[in-house]
Amino acid sequence: MSLRYLTAGETHGPQLTAIIEGLPSNLELDFEALNFQLHRRQKGHGRGRRMQIEQDTAQIVGGVRHGKTTGAPVALVVANNDWKHWTSVMNIEPISGNDETKRRVHRPRPGHADLNGGLKYNQTDLRNILERSSARETAARVAVGAVARQLLEKFGIRVAGRVVSIGGIAAPEPNMPIDELIARTEESPVRVTDAETEAKMIALIDQTKADGDSIGGVVECIVAGLPVGLGSHVQWDRKLDGRIAQAVVSINAFKGVEFGIGFEAANRPGSQVHDEILYSEEKGYHRASNRLGGFEGGMTNGMPIVVRGVMKPIPTLYKPLRSVDIDTKEPFTAQVERSDACAVPAASVVMESVVAWEVAKAFLEKFGGDSMEELQANYDNYLRQVAEY
Ligand code: EPS
């Protein structure tokens, strides 16, 4: 069974819900580590007032007993604290009242799903679109990704993330071991390792907020400790880099993705793009560089995966852009909603989570097994085969 998940829930509804299917049995879950990932997503300089209301924790309500998965679907929920302010507006039952009491939305925000979703689903209250399209949903994806991450960690696979740039301010290449990168970025409110860049980014976020505007940036995810051969060249939808690209661009507000040197490859001759193959007794086959970001032919090549995603500035602005009221068809310019001036550091955690998920899925596809013991035996056997090659 292939690993899969679904999420449900609205940003101001009672909770987010996720169901994960296809996990092997006997995966020991560290609940504290799971909630730590949710906590990481809530942090970061530039977040708005909503994050002061929420204290995200995942409650597991199925598929786990005495600390271990049973092989059954794992169900988990993340409660929305803010719901208590929205119980009437978000009531499942019909409610009486006017547009104001229902907080009906009829002014679509440029850059959001509001107008496209309203037209597509024939909804004249755009709240029915924005409630689900909200990036709140990423809390559920981080919870799901945290489970995937724990599975990968059992096999020595580590996932890290960092902010590459915010609003055009770029961090220098960190060039450090993955554990140090994880520790250093964790201490930074903008998830960078360089203090000077951090100060500049914070100042820019503060200025942007004061201006009623928003800014985006670029985030990077690194996955180290991988075996060669996750994904496959034989079919388009088995290429793991392609799947990761889809997962990254599916994160709210993400507009692009690249691996390794990415778009820069267009400017260089092939001799400065491809990674030379080396062999030693100690390391076996390995590469002289990692410009391709860990992939050739849609398969991992044993080097760390390095993937970057670009996040556009959040479209809910205190300085709104022009739009048209769907009732009157008249232009309007003012509708102030609370928002984040910059959610790039949080998005870095979301990206780690969706990448961890895709890698775990490919890992289970390759090594299979209904229990952790079976998975481990299959993995060990493959590593032996690769070592003897
Ligand atoms: C979001 C709008 C804000 C953000 C929210 C994403 O929420 P609200 O509409 O309640 O002010 O805080 O992000 C989260 C709630 C979260 O957990 O990340 C949006 O429109 O996408």
Describe the structure.
Residues 99-118 are annotated as: Disordered. Pfam families: Chorismate_synt. The protein has 389 residues and is α+β, with helices and mostly antiparallel strands. The chain has one domain: Chorismate synthase, AroC fold (4-Layer Sandwich), CATH 3.60.150.10. It has eleven helices and 17 strands. The strands form six sheets. It has a five-stranded antiparallel β-sheet. Helix 1 packs across helix 6, helix 1 (31-42) packs antiparallel against helix 10 (344-367) and helix 9 packs antiparallel against helix 10. The protein is globular, with a radius of gyration of 22 Å. 38% of the residues are buried. Bound molecules: ligand EPS.
CATH architecture annotation name: 4-Layer Sandwich
- Radius of gyration, taken over Cα atoms and rounded to an integer in Å: 22 Å
The proportion of strand residues reads 15-25%
Shape descriptor: globular
CATH fold label: Chorismate synthase, AroC fold
> Which ligands appear in the coordinates?
ligand EPS
What is the total domain count?
A: 1
**Unreliable segments (pLDDT under 50, ≥5 consecutive)?**
none
The CA-CA distance between the termini, in Å, is 29 Å
Structure class:
alpha+beta
Assigned CATH superfamily: Chorismate synthase AroC
CATH class assignment: Alpha Beta
Main β sheet profile: 5 strands, antiparallel
- SSE sequence, one letter per element: EEHHEEEEHHHHEEHHEHEEEEEEEEHH
Could you tell me the number of beta strands?
A: 17
Level of helix content? 25-40%
Number of helices: 11
Quaternary organisation of the protein chains? single chain
Summarize model confidence as the mean pLDDT: 96
Q: Can you list the strand order of the major beta sheet?
A: 8-7-9-15-10
